[in-house]
UniProtKB/TrEMBL annotation:
This is histidine kinase. InterPro entries: HATPase_C_sf, HATPase_dom, His_kinase_dom, HisK_dim/P_dom, HisK_dim/P_sf, Sensor_HK_Regulatory, Sig_transdc_His_kin-like_C. It catalyses: ATP + protein L-histidine = ADP + protein N-phospho-L-histidine. It comes from Candidatus Scybalocola faecigallinarum. Residues 254-468 form the Histidine kinase domain. Pfam families: HATPase_c, HisKA. It is an enzyme of class 2 (transferase).
Length: 468
């Protein structure tokens, strides 16, 4: 589920977040690069590149004069040792008066010209030298501090007059850049508003059933896909609802007609008996037989309606028990063959196992099988062979097949076959059925945790397969 919810962030927010992250990364990279380039290592970590000059200038704080002699505090000397630096102090005549960690290549005296030419940041192959002076009580000393790494310095010279002339141009370029950025943001906002407006109109069109599918591409590809899918689902749902309503109306009309059919003779013969009480006993019995037959048919219609809605609502009580299916189905087939209506039909039974034990509701399961077998007999010519068989598999499933070599069915008829609002078109004559038989059969099989499938070809017959 989580995989399906990615890319659900608002595209505008996603773009803003992207540019914000990019800007932060650029700033972090710039700061890091600048710190890397303009910093140097020292015992306490990285310090700014100006640290050597600052250290050299501030070293005079650890110097003092006493009786015309130079004294250096211990802390200053400890800093020199810990940082790996060297120090040389010379007097006004250029002679060395003190040194600490000084390399052998450093001279002990300097001429006036050498002192004048000495400058901060003088670089050799081994170290960089910074200079400083210390004065106290009329005495002055110069000193050199050597750092064991190269420190670069760059001095930029520029034409102040040209810079002043270019300043308005620079301001103009900055304003132009800001204006371009503003225009880009405005253009993006207009583009985003247009896309969002299209999506809003699409949602409105979905509610009005006037939506037209759009190409699934661009930043809003996922949204377009969702809208197109919803539109397809709505169209299929509307089509199914329309077909269901039509089938329901046709079914209600059929049920109404079927109820009127038995009620007419019941009413007619009942009136005869009521108006002619002297009717001969023979005729009275005949009338009563017809009335009872039609009453039973009416009861069957009502019971089927009740059963299908009980199965739908789950209110039908079930009584499951272990049943030996081979014997159970064989006896059912024998009972149907003994029915005068099917006594001359070609019905056979076969099983690949002598015994198959399974838990079923005997009465309900019998009803499902009877409906399927009756369907094969009623909707096919009298010479049609109907075969009922059992196959017990290693997958702990039992498969029951009801096959015939009759007229078969078209694909569109198979798709509607198990709808309780549908009656097949292959009935050879007027049936006294309710049109609910196959729907009830599937509901009962589903109640047993199984499934029922059908394969059929026009002119080649039909096969129902029950798997439980």
């Amino acid at each position: 589920m989580e995989n399906k919810r990615k890319h659900t962030m608002n595209p505008f927010i996603r773009t803003v977040v992207f540019f914000a992250i990019l800007l932060v990364l650029l700033l972090a990279g710039f700061i890091g690069l600048r710190f890397l380039i303009f910093s140097i290592p020292e015992p306490e970590g990285l310090s700014p590149a100006s640290w050597p000059a600052t250290f050299a200038d501030n070293f005079s704080l650890w110097m003092s004069e006493k009786d015309g002699e130079l004294a250096i505090d211990d802390i200053g000397l400890e800093r020199l040792d810990s940082y790996g630096l060297w120090l040389q102090v010379i007097d006004e005549s250029g002679q060395e008066v003190f040194s600490q960690n000084k390399p052998e290549t450093v001279p002990q005296s300097y001429t006036a010209s050498q002192l004048v030419s000495a400058e901060d940041g003088a670089d050799t192959e081994e170290y960089t030298v910074y200079t400083g002076t210390f004065s106290q009580n009329g005495c002055t000393w110069s000193y050199f501090v050597g750092f064991p790494y190269a420190i670069g310095e760059t001095v930029i010279y520029y034409n102040g007059e040209v810079v002043s002339r270019l300043q308005p141009l620079a301001k103009g370029l900055i304003l132009a850049g800001l204006l371009c950025i503003g225009l880009l943001i405005l253009g993006y906002g207009l583009w985003l508003s247009r896309k969002l407006s299209m999506i809003s109109l699409g949602i409105r069109d979905l509610s009005l059933r006037t939506y037209k599918p759009v190409k699934e591409k661009g930043v809003f590809k996922n949204i377009y896909q969702a809208l197109n899918k919803i539109d397809g689902d709505i169209r299929r749902s509307d089509k199914l609802a329309a077909e269901t309503d039509q089938a329901r109306n046709e079914w209600i009309a059929n049920i109404t007609h079927d109820l009127k059919t038995p009620l007419s003779p019941i009413k007619g013969y009942g009136e005869l008996l009521a108006e002619h009480p002297e009717t001969e006993a023979k005729n009275a019995r005949a009338y009563g037989t017809i009335i009872l037959k039609n009453v039973r048919h009416t009861e069957a219609l009502i019971n089927d309606l009740k059963l299908t809605y009980q199965l739908d609502s789950g209110t039908l009580p079930c009584h499951f028990q272990e049943v030996e299916l081979v014997r159970y189905i064989r006896e059912l087939v024998i009972d149907m063959i003994n029915d005068p209506a099917f006594s001359k039909r070609n019905v056979s039974f076969d099983s690949d196992a002598a015994e198959v034990i399974h838990s079923i509701d005997p009465q309900l399961f019998r009803r499902a099988l009877q409906n399927l077998i009756t369907n094969a007999l009623v909707h096919n010519p009298e010479d049609t062979a109907v075969e009922i068989s059992i196959q017990s598999r290693m997958d702990d499933q039992v498969h029951i097949f009801i096959r015939d070599n009759g007229v078969g069915m078209e694909k569109d008829e198979i798709e509607k076959l198990f709808s309780r609002y549908y009656r097949g078109t292959n009935t050879r004559e007027k049936s006294e059925g309710t049109g609910l038989g196959l729907a009830i059969a599937r509901q009962i099989i589903t109640l047993h945790g199984g499934e029922i499938t059908v394969k059929s070809q026009p002119g080649k017959g039909t096969e129902f397969k029950i798997s439980i």
